[in-house]
Amino acid sequence: MINITTTIEGKDHIIMVEGDVDASSSIHLDEALTELANDDSVKFILVDGTQLNYISSAGLGVFMSYIDDFKEKNIKMVIYGLSEKVLNVFQILGLDQLMTIVTDKKEAKDKLHEVQS
To answer: How far apart are alpha carbons 84 and 66 in whole angstroms?
Structure first.
């Protein structure tokens, strides 16, 4: 079971992912990210993983499929709040090197809005 909600805080679009992202439910994550990727006003995305219990390779593939899109559209995305178990899956596949993953929302907001030098 998965529940995905998108909220806006200032300039930040926050996607909360609750439950399990597997082959059948990853379509919902894909739809949420597609919607944001197609909105020209979106520049900052926070993915709240505090309630994410499990992610399969299909779910990881969804995140991977947006890396280039977001780069081209100058959209910054930060994932935060992953459990040790879920973070480990990202690390095993090296995705922590391709995406910004931090521990909490404050750190995510700081990372999202840091000045590029």
So the answer is: 23
- Give dist(CA 29, CA 63) in Å, integer: 9
Contact 45, 37 (CB under 8 A): no
Overall pTM surpassing 0.85 (yes/no): yes
pLDDT tens-digit map of 18-29: 999 999 999 999
Q: How far is CA 110 from the centre of its chain?
A: 16
SS (H, E, C) the chain: CEEEEEEEECCEEEEEEEEEECCCCHHHHHHHHHHHHCCCCCCEEEEECCCEEEECHHHHHHHHHHHHHHHHCCCEEEEECCCHHHHHHHHHCCHHHCCEEECCHHHHHHHHCCCCC
d(CA 30, CA 23): 11
When computed from its CA atoms, the radius of gyration of the chain, rounded to whole angstroms, is 13
